[in-house]
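Notes from the 1:1 (GR / supervisor)

We went over the backlog. Supervisor wanted to see one worked example end to end before approving the batch request, so GR pasted a single chain during the call. The sequence is below; no edits were made to it. Supervisor asked that the structure be written out right there so they could see what the output format looks like.
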Amino acid sequence: TMKPAAVPRSFYLAGGLIVLFLLLPLVGTLSGTDPDSLRSTLVDAEVLASIGLTFSAAALATGIGLAAGVPLAYLMARRSFPAKAWIAVLVDLPVVIPHTAAGIALLLVFGRQGLLGRWLAPLGIFFTDNVAGIVAAMLFVSLSFLIDASREAFAQIDSQTEESARVDGASPWQVFWHVALPQAWRGILSGALLMWARGISEFGAVVILAYHPKIVPVLVFERFSGFGLAAAQPVALILIVVVLVVFGALRWLARGEEG
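Structure output shown during the call:
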């Protein structure tokens, strides 16, 4: 058994301060919430509907990301092509763009008078104040997490195994499905979890493109701005607890599969 590497004692202090910084807001939210307000919020139809909408919209955005983003990640990991570097920059751009600005950009495309919105409206497809707008906003701000994690997972696979499968007569699709995907799935799952969690937490882009129906971050903001901290705190606590439980369970399952 290898002996653990020596670590400067100051690192424990620095690490402890970071853990405390992350933990205190959670503890403060939990301990500062009035139990009666929490109980009434737990049976609030608007809150329950908002939680269901938030999770389902984030899941739908993640599903679209898996269907379209994973192929792009595989392509970027396995092939060189013109503008590849610029596409990589474009994929990461939503991470650094302020999300209120992203909401404006999405509105200019998917709004009723937007570049695509004006053509889709006659077909009965609307994004403003619609679930489709929520999904589009979540997809835009969170897709980079999935693509980057998937690309890195594919890049770590020995390409010789894929070449051997091709020599044995496998089609490109069979190589991807039976060789690359089974080896990269943990990285893809990790990226999907990050994308899903990021979608749940999105506020800025969603509130501009699709204020209604309200996802939980928008509902928290509305209750805080309209009724104050006491009204917003129970909703925020419920979201934090639900996300921690679901996200923790999914990460535990992923580790269990890995073990």
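Supervisor's comment: The chain has twelve helices and no strands.
Batch request approved.
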